[in-house]
Amino acid sequence: MALSLQPITSPSLLSIRAARLDDVRPVLALHQEAFADKFGGAFGAQG
Question: Is the pTM of this model over 0.90?
Answer without folding.
Answer: no
